[in-house]
Amino acid sequence: MMPLDPMGLMALSIPQRNVVYAGRDSLMYALTVGMAASGEPDDLPFVWEREQRVIPSMATMLAFDDSWLDAAGIDLKQVVHGGLDLHFHAPLAPEGEALVETRIAGLDDKGAGKAGLVFAETVLSQGAGPACTILSTIFVRGAGGFGGAVGEQATFAKVPDGAPDVTSQAQTACNQALLFRLLGDRNPLHVDPALARQVGFERPILHGACTFGIACAEVLRVFCGLEPARLRRFAARFAGPLYPGETLAFSFWRNGNRIAFRATAAERAAIVLDSGLAELAD
């Protein structure tokens, strides 16, 4: 992979898109991030069209677009997600249309032969105004060495020291990546065993956005009473792979309306999500 082209990327024009989605898509997203996986009746509003609610992190799938990678000279096979930071302005409708506007906000350089990071900002609008602003960190293996940081940078706060206030677990399914990819992210890293081994993983990994969505669903259960409108911000850095079928173990530290969190693959005691932050409405 060649180093990223800062001038070309920062000048890249990404056409705005109008995304149309059905209630079925919102139900599918909720199922792919584990809602009602063990038959929990409280999860039903997210997986049943009667009085349907939407998991806020579904904004990442409505905003998903990798069509600009070719124009940027980026090989999809070298790409993994590095993190997400979502600011929610209004709850998503269960179905309808969304205007998606994306720009390259900044780049970071981890050094020659190492990674190059691309920070893409997406504004998702419905009705009268924005519903969600997303800052996505895209990790491009081998694309560093282009000369240093450019533009806006993503920042993630460290989780506190000491014992967490709350812990919980979520079991993932062995076919979860195969289901999640049907929502739009067809990166072969999540389905092709040979490619996964080629880039250093023992087998295909779960999408970072899926792990992120599982964490968002867990925060809704534990801290929001399953009310999406209570969540104002949700962010995390993707610190390591999660393999489908593994157990996500969550640690939460609460300070008023700010919830810091970390998630590990319990079977390997390996950190998967770090520097997590959920901000709640008053």
Automatic annotation (TrEMBL):
Residues 21-142 form the Peroxisomal multifunctional enzyme type 2-like N-terminal domain. Transmembrane segments: none annotated. Gene3D superfamilies: Hotdog Thioesterase. Residues 157-266 form the MaoC-like domain. CDD domains: HDE_HSD. InterPro entries: HotDog_dom_sf (IPR029069), MaoC-like_dom (IPR002539), MFE-2_N (IPR054357). PANTHER family: PEROXISOMAL MULTIFUNCTIONAL ENZYME TYPE 2, PEROXISOMAL MULTIFUNCTIONAL ENZYME TYPE 2-RELATED. This is MaoC family dehydratase N-terminal domain-containing protein. It comes from Teichococcus aerophilus.
